[in-house]
Amino acid sequence: MVTIRAVISTSDGKTRQLEVPEDRQSALYGKKIGEVLDGSLLGFSNTKLKITGGSDKDGFPMRNDFPGMRRKRVLLTGGVGFHPKRDGVRKKKNIRGNTISEDISQVNFFVVEGKIEEAKGETNETAKTT
After folding, report:
1. Residue 123: helix, strand or coil by DSSP?
2. Which of 43, 51, 99, 129 is the most buried (most CB within 10 A)?
């Protein structure tokens, strides 16, 4: 089983990364991109988190318009997983479905309601300003 890393972004541009404990990882399985979860799953009370994406253990991105948990090689014209340099370019790329499974290693969240409190002395935190 792969350890899941949660990347939580806020509306003010800050990002926080943490590892999901193994006993709580099974609660994420079967959830899809776009679903809103309770923040207590990751240890944040009074918070709602929206799943915005992720990637699997080999680095292939999850794509919200591809249903299921499997990895597939599909023809893309743009969007998540492929950014063409010119118009009209299509390319076959590997992508992962929109459902979280045991092979997912990173899940991206966005804070919809509430806020994330910063713990004192925490070393596993990154802050980005846009």
Report:
1. coil
2. 51
